[in-house]
């Protein structure tokens, strides 16, 4: 749908909030905390989490970090000015908030604050108990500090800044020291931060179903990665996929993704991030064993082997039969 960029506001170093609304002032489709939208900008399609209170139906607000190492979407966003018309999707939510939780722990790393800010807004409005732990490189890079200093947020928010030294950094074992069946943990941020939180939650005994995460992008492999590691096994080689609807067989060469091979054969699968993060290309698997390489599916969903993200995942068997 078409919306107008009505306001662009700098909220931290290299972070701007973009307010999007209908040009005629009519309400936008409703959303719940944790939702994101696809934004078409500069020839890219990028996913940005909604960070405002879900009850604010007149506008969507997204926070965007200008990252010089990105693939171009954030740079294009930061070049926009108020009055620009944009095409966006309706909200999608792969990171929903359990509003009935007895207690909610929100853990944000950097720009990962955006979906958690909407959660904090929704929980605060509903009078539900929560705590927010926000890690950033330095105070100037922490967004929404003014809002988080207001009553309802200030007493529940804890900041941790790398610039203040090791002693000021978050102690995940302490924050997650008391797992409870009725409590839920939500984490968003860089992949390394999320992995550290998940590992700490596992060590301290949190039930896996009570720990929720959302990645913004896939982690980059280290420059000195061993060519013989599990990520570079024979599973990177060629395989085939069969399209269940017509029994057509498509060859997937080594170094080519399933989506690329399908596209070369004239079959288009909807994609967005192409990193296994957003879930747009999720496809049912009817036979064969996928080699999951995404950051979207849970461990339980991967173990079922009945779906995969063809933008990045491969096959552990010579053939996969896909519901296409």
TrEMBL record:
MF annotations from Gene Ontology: 2 iron, 2 sulfur cluster binding; metal ion binding; methyltransferase activity; oxidoreductase activity
Domain FAD-binding FR-type: 1-98
Necessary cofactors: FMN
InterPro entries: 2Fe-2S_ferredoxin-like_sf, 2Fe-2S_ferredoxin-type, 2Fe2S_fd_BS, Beta-grasp_dom_sf, DmmA-like_N, FAD-bd_FR_type, FNR_nucleotide-bd, MRET
Pfam family, one: DmmA-like_N
UniProt entry tagged with the keyword Metal-binding: yes
GO biological process, one term: methylation
UniProt keyword terms in alphabetical order: 2Fe-2S, Flavoprotein, FMN, Iron, Iron-sulfur, Metal-binding, Methyltransferase, Oxidoreductase, Transferase
Domain 2Fe-2S ferredoxin-type stretches: 239-324
Keyword rRNA-binding listed: no
PANTHER family the UniProt entry points to: CARNITINE MONOOXYGENASE REDUCTASE SUBUNIT, NADH OXIDOREDUCTASE HCR
Protein name (record): Vanillate O-demethylase ferredoxin subunit
Organism: Paraburkholderia eburnea
Native organism taxonomy: Bacteria, Pseudomonadati, Pseudomonadota, Betaproteobacteria, Burkholderiales
């Amino acid at each position: 749908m078409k919306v107008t960029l009505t306001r662009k506001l700098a909220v931290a170093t290299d972070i701007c909030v973009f307010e999007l609304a209908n040009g005629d002032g009519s309400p936008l489709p409703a959303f719940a905390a944790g939702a994101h939208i696809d934004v078409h900008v500069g020839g890219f399609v990028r996913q940005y989490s909604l960070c405002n209170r879900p009850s604010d139906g007149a506008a969507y607000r997204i926070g965007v970090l200008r990252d010089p190492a990105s693939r171009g979407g954030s740079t294009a966003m930061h070049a926009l000015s108020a009055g620009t018309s944009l095409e966006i999707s309706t909200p999608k939510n792969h990171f929903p908030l359990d509003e009935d939780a007895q207690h909610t722990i929100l853990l944000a790393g950097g720009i990962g604050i955006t979906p958690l800010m909407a959660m904090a807004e929704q929980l605060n409005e509903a009078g539900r108990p929560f705590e927010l732990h926000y890690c950033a490189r330095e105070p100037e890079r922490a967004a929404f500090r003014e809002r988080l200093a207001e009553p309802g947020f200030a007493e529940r928010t804890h900041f941790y800044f790398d610039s203040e030294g090791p002693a000021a950094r978050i102690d995940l074992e302490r924050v997650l020291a008391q797992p409870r069946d009725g409590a839920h943990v939500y984490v968003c941020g860089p992949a390394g931060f999320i992995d550290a939180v998940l590992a700490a939650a596992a060590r301290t005994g949190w039930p896996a179903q009570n720990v929720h995460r959302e990645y913004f992008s896939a982690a980059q492999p280290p420059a000195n990665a061993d060519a013989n590691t599990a990520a570079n096994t024979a599973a990177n080689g060629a395989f085939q996929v069969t399209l269940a609807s017509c029994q057509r067989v498509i060859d997937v060469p080594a170094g080519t993704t399933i989506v690329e091979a399908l596209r070369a054969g004239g079959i288009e699968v909807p994609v967005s991030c192409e990193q296994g993060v957003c879930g747009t290309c999720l496809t049912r698997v009817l036979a064969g064993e996928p080699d999951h390489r995404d950051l979207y599916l849970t461990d339980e969903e991967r173990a079922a082997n009945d779906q995969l993200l063809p933008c990045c995942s491969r096959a552990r068997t010579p053939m996969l039969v896909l519901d296409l």
